[in-house]
Amino acid sequence: MPSQSDRSDRLRDAVLTLLRAKGAHPMSLSDIQHLLKVPPEGKRDLQSLLRRLCESGDLVRTRGKRFGVSAEMNLAPGRLQMHPDGYGFVVLDEKQNGDVFVKGRELGGAMHGDRVLVRIEQEIPGGRGPEGSIVRILSRARATVVGRIERTGEYAYLTPADPRLSQDIFIPDGRVGEARTGQMVVAEITAWPAARRPAEATVVEVLGDEGGPGVAEEVIIRQFDLPHRFPRRVLVDAETVPATVGAPERAGRVDLRGVLTVTIDGETARDFDDAISLEQTGRGTWLLRVHIADVSHYVPEGGAMDREAFARGTSVYFPGRVLPMLPERLSNGICSLNPGVDRLAFTAVLEFSRQGKLLKHDFLETVIHSDARLTYTAVARALDGGDPAAVPALPGLAEMLAQARDLALAIRDVRARRGSIDFDLPEEQILLDLQGSITTIVRSERNVAHRIIEEFMIAANEAVAGYFGWMKVPGIYRVHEVPSQEKLGAFAEFAAGFGHKIRLPLEPTSRFFADFIETLRGRPEERVLNEVLLRSMKQAVYAADNIGHFGLASAAYTHFTSPIRRYPDLVVHRLLRDLVRRGRFTPAQADELDAALPEIAAHCSARERVATEAEREVVNLHKTEYLARRVGETAAGFITGVTHFGLFVQLADVPVEGLVHVSTLGDDYYKHREDLRALVGTNTGTTFRHGDAVTVKIAAVNTALRRADFVLVRERAAGEKGTAASTAAAATGRPGRQTRGARGGSQKSRPAAATKPAPAAKLKSTRSSRRRKSR
Question: Which of 674, 613, 639 is nearest to 491 (CA)?
Fold first, then answer.
């Protein structure tokens, strides 16, 4: 018998087919019921379905109470992205038409992030996409707003911290609470904006004085609506979890406590969800055991901890602080593979040939005992630094680490031969003092220990994904689509400016780009082209349908190795556990998973994006705090981005960026050449391109907006020693271009009214090293 879900899906398909049919027109509820022969008892289900289709934007309910297809009325659903200057773009659900530009007066009360229905009214000349107006708000992105309070007599206004919420919010009399002028607060929206009326709200939380210690970080947490406190029920459930592994927990598991096992992580890591063991077999092969914390044993599916973990989707990592997916009793306690204690694990047993080829695999529920907590730095010193005393003098440890290096190199060679892309870009690390203030920013290069763990984790993830495919069972995969020909074409044009003539294949392959990256090794433009190529790639996401991982050149890839901090890994553990115990899924279980996993994957992908954006924003906050101390300084740098409104320049001594606005280039009128990724002077021909070395003055810093403004300074005459430009050239390997003075002044730059704007001139950051395991 068909399930309720199946019947609902069939009815949905029937309604859309009816209303999309050739010659169809908007119909009333009774018309649709009659034509689809829906019995009277099914009318309520039909009404509910039509309401959901209107909420999603697929249908529109007209003033005559008729239902029609949005696309047939020149309407399209999407999400509004606002610009601080008051206009916005609707990013459509269906991408074929491009983003729709919306003037401020056509917003219809919508706010940044809202899902809306936009009427596409005209095409903008010059191929810059369509323009439209918002006719309906499908759903609001937020119920609260965080910002700065200004009290004026009996009422107050809140200025949102997010510059994309460009209108102040009115706080009526009696709804300000104890908040004072200049404090940062969280306010609950009680009335949405209308044509002649601002939004209204009530203050529900005071975060502290603007600029106070830790307040800016709290603002970002609220701004991204990150869960930062565990509900009481979750904490109560966590307290029932045992603090140690006893005999009942060990029962039925493979006992690997006698096998030499270590964790290798960063110096500041507090949760250890992976450990490794390695030995050689009598057949001359390697036997690698990748032990992953068995979080699924302690987090029952459907329980309070599981529901909260799903809602969070991932842990969020800030410099010096973590918003964990699981309560600390689990993440830093019983689920963390701490040294010297027994822990439950799920172990991937992988046998490799001497050449790094995976021969066979097995998956076991185990109990392990980590012998040592090692750091990347210590392992690198022991292996490549000639300092064996950097790691504990455990019997067999030095030999195991040396073998781990050899095996990792062999596995890496196998990946390289199949075309796996390795950009090998440096990471950045923000160093804080005991009060949480930034001291400096350093670049952190990957060492041999990072590569060992990365290769072993990738191998385990691939083995699990391959097992799901071989068993032909539902699963969650980490997928990475083939990049678009349009973006690759733009990259090829950019690379041509550096003398690289790229003839793109009709079907892009990862091997093609991996080979190209190899040709860049050691060349001055290596870093610039690697970064631009990386930006040309699509973002990896979670999916229930396996389409492979382009970047890794992997036919099947998943996330199995971090269930403490990623919900998809926890789901993968549960699926794997059921397969290990029962050998298969029942038909009913498979059907249930087929229905549930796509939604889980989509939700986790969305939560990952939110976490990444929040992490970047906090990093940018610390960077602007650092730059604020250097206002007025002159420094060497190099251009990392070129737009119609200016140049992004990264300093040579620290990985921090600021904007040189086009209006400060007062010696000429500059036009943006997108094909060259350059600004070109109309009269002088002076060119500023991605990768050029320049000298800048740190002119101004706005920590609230996470924005830094730089000004180009005149290079010294040829022959003068110690110029900042020569320092920048040494840092980038590419000489600076003559700027002809750039002595300030003003220049009018014509705004591209219907081109999608870049974000405000915010400082950019790379992902933290903690994310490198994520791929």
Answer: 674
CATH of region 144-223: 2.40.50.700
* pLDDT score at 715: 53
What is the spatial distance between Cα 576 and Cα 464, in angstroms, rounded to a whole number?
A: 8
Dihedral angle sign, alpha carbons of residues 269, 274, 277, 278? negative
Question: Does the domain spanning 4-70 belong to CATH 1.10.3210.10?
Answer: no
Do the domains 630-772 and 4-70 match in fold? no
**How many CB atoms are located within 10 Å of the residue 187 CB?**
26
Report d(CA 277, CA 345) in Å as an integer: 13
Q: What is the mean pLDDT of residues 758-774?
A: 41
How far is residue 260's CA from residue 372's CA, in Å, rounded to a whole number?
9
Q: Taking the model in full, what pTM does it have? A: 0.85
CA angle 744, 748, 750 (to 5 degrees): 140
pLDDT band at 589 (very low <50, low <70, confident <90, very high): very high
CATH superfamily, region 630-772:
Nucleic acid-binding proteins (2.40.50.140)
74-139 CATH, one of 3.40.50.150, 2.40.128.90, 3.40.50.300, 2.40.50.140: 2.40.50.140
Alpha helix positions (H), 289-370 = 304-312, 328
CA angle in degrees (0–180, nearest 5) for 478-481-482: 145
In tens, the pLDDT along 353-394 reads: 999 999 999 999 999 999 999 999 999 999 998 899 999 999
In terms of Cα–Cα distance, which of 604, 505, 581, 508 is closest to 548?
508
DSSP characters over 137-199: EEE-S-SEEEEEEEEETTEEEEEESSTTS-S-EEE-TT-STT--TTEEEEEEEEE--BTTB--
User: Could you state, in order of their start, the residue ranges of all structural domains in the chain?
Assistant: 4-70, 74-139, 144-223, 232-481+542-617, 485-537, 630-772
Q: What own/partner pairs with CB < 8 Å and gap ≥ 24 does 85-89 have? A: 85/166, 85/757, 86/166, 87/753, 88/112, 89/756
